[in-house]
Amino acid sequence: MSHPAKGKSALLIKLTLWLITFTVVLPFLWLLKASVMDFANSQAGVLAWVRDSVVFTLAALIFSVLSSITAGFVMAILYIPFRKTMIVLTLITMLIPATAMAMPLYVLVDHIHLNDTILGLVIASSYYPFGAFLSYLYFSSAMPGDLVGMGRIDGLGDWGLFYHLGIPLSKSLWSIVTFFSFINLWNSYQLPKVLLNAPEHSTLPMGLELLYGRGTATVGILMLIPAVLLYLLSQRSIERGIFSGAVTG
Questions:
Q1: Cα 5 to the chain's mean position, in Å?
Q2: What phi, psi does 16 have (nearest 5°)?
Q3: Degrees (nearest 5) of the Cα angle 247, 248, 249?
Q4: Mean pLDDT across the chain, nearest whole number?
Q5: What pLDDT does residue 181 have?
Q6: How many CA atoms lie within 13 A of 106 on its CB side?
Q7: What is the pLDDT confidence band of residue 241, given thresholds at 50, 70 and 90?
Q8: Which DSSP category does 43 fall into?
Q9: From residue 213, how far is each of 26, 35, 41, 43, 216 by CA, in Å?
Q10: pLDDT of residue 246
Q11: Backbone angles phi, psi at 87, to 5 degrees
Q12: 75 vs 32, 43, 85, 163, 174, CA distance in Å?
């Protein structure tokens, strides 16, 4: 192929990419413009919703990431009773829709007298089967039996294997689970809708319904910015984790 033809192909590819980029960014620009226009009309309760969303998301994020990665390590590396049964149950639970889990979780939180509280919402939202199963798959490939056996020979117990081998080998896993768990919690609507009754305890996704056109663009921007920033900060780790098993030596 001649050089002019290559130049035309490269120009066509660039124009296509710029057109796609503009198409993707256009709704965000409209949302930003609308948020500036209706910012004065948004209720003062938006700040309380932001506070509740931040507290709920960060607290539940810590519990969900720690529990899911630890559970994945246990299921992948340690020989425990009913190990295969736990793996199958985790997979089945991961496939259950969130709406189907809302009522059982409501009954559970109500029995411990934490209904209509952020703490109750944190406890109910900390269970993250997707993160546990993803961690199980990751540790199953990242820590082969020979590596675990060498760790045992060096005198490492279960906690030593996790601390000295599991954590150093799973940095990209922590980024992936944290990112997806954050998105799941930050945008959570169904469970907060069931567990939180008072309007002053609402989170940002619930606030969109309460405002109904009076400041919804502002709330939309507030919901979008943290997710975008987190992705930009963890982009490299997420890409390494996704493609870590694509190439084998």
A1: 45
A2: -65, -45
A3: 125
A4: 80
A5: 92
A6: 15
A7: low
A8: -
A9: 20, 11, 10, 11, 5
A10: 46
A11: -65, -45
A12: 45, 47, 10, 16, 17
What confidence tens digit (pLDDT) does each residue in 127-136 have?
899 999 999 9
Q: What is the residue type of 228? A: V
* Cα–Cα distance for residue pair 53/51, rounded to 1 Å: 5
Please provide the size of the chain in residues: 249
Task: Compute how many other C-beta atoms are within 10 angstroms of the C-beta atom of residue 171.
Answer: 11
Domains of the chain as residue ranges with CATH:
44-243 (1.10.3720.10)
Three-state DSSP state, 217: helix
What is the per-residue pLDDT for 156? 86
The span from the first CA to the last CA of the chain, in angstroms, equals 34
Instruction: Give pLDDT tens digits for 72-97.
Output: 999 998 888 888 899 999 988 888 88
Coil, strand, or helix at residue 77?
helix
Q: SS3 for 249? A: coil
Q: Which two tokens stand for residue 209?
A: 């319904």
* Amino acid identity at 206: M
CA distances from 27 to 30, 34, 35, 183, 215 (A): 5, 10, 12, 20, 16
